[in-house]
Write a structure and sequence with these properties.
This protein is α/β, with parallel strands linked by helices. The chain is built from 9 helices and 10 strands. It has one domain: Vaccinia Virus protein VP39 (Rossmann fold), CATH 3.40.50. It is 38% helix and 20% strand. Helix 8 runs antiparallel to helix 9.
Length: 260
């Protein structure tokens, strides 16, 4: 079976799953909102780094936040502008977040653009692990990069910054020279070194506490507040080859008060 035909099958399968994913998000929306209210209050500012089609932007708006949606992919930008172009609570930034303001490119997933990545090492890792072994990233799109510092200077300090950039999280964090109140960073266990570097960088910026989630579960997997080393050790100890989720960091203990 040639790659073109196989990718067509994978794309078709992904599209059939979209309605189910949409319904799942609707079903679990109240739980997701309760969880996010730990970090964001009505009127608060959120940076949605790697906004894609704006699913998390929708969640942030539902809790009453103002959102800066940062997304470099042209296809996703068209969707974001259609959905939120007239929404005064959303500001769309057509960039990738990086360590410096420059130009680069993003490798486009042939199956679904949620997996497009600016990190070739991440692509190799998730294919080599077997999770996406049949997927291809055969084209690329030129993108402009912006730093989180520049976004802070332009929009103000966000109460929460979500970073979901398929292996490019550390580069995004490197564009930040001051601690933010709270952040989330996507991790993939096959590429845990990016999360390690990101967490260590944050720990140098400020006195952060950490915890983590598994998949899209709206609750912390750790039983206690964790320091930078403990959160990585907790993820690595699960020994699941396809584990992914988000690491949460906060300067305040309030979001982790369940574990006080």
């Amino acid at each position: 079976m040639n790659n073109t035909f196989f990718n067509w099958i994978l794309r078709s399968y992904s599209r059939t799953r979209l309605p189910a994913k949409w319904l799942k998000r609707k079903y679990y929306k109240s739980g997701a909102m309760r969880f996010m209210k730990r970090f964001v209050k009505p009127g608060g500012l959120v940076f949605d780094v790697g906004a894609n089609y704006g699913w998390k932007t929708e969640l942030f708006l539902a809790v009453g936040a103002r959102v800066v949606a940062i997304e470099p992919q042209s296809e996703c930008l068209r969707v974001l502008k259609r959905k939120y172009g007239s929404n005064l609570s959303v500001f769309i930034e057509p960039f990738a977040a990086g360590a410096a303001e420059t130009q680069s490119h993003i490798w486009k997933s042939d199956v679904r653009n949620q997996l497009s990545s600016m990190a070739p090492d991440w692509i190799f890792a998730v294919r080599n692990s077997g999770r996406f072994k049949h997927f291809e990233w055969s084209s690329k799109e030129d993108v402009n990069l912006v730093t989180l510092d520049s976004l802070v200077q332009k929009h103000g300090i966000p109460a929460f910054c979500k970073i979901d950039t398929e292996g490019y999280e550390f580069q995004a964090i490197q564009g930040l020279s001051q601690p933010l109140p709270s952040l989330s960073i996507e991790y993939h266990v096959e590429f845990l070194e990016a999360a390690v570097k990101s967490v260590e960088y944050l720990a140098r910026l400020g006195d952060y506490s950490f915890n983590y989630t598994i998949g899209e579960h709206h609750g912390f997997a750790g039983k206690n507040r964790l320091d930078s080393k403990a959160v990585i050790n907790a993820i690595a100890s699960r020994k699941v080859s396809s584990l992914q989720g988000d690491i949460y960091a906060s300067l305040s203990l309030n979001p982790f008060s369940d574990f006080a």
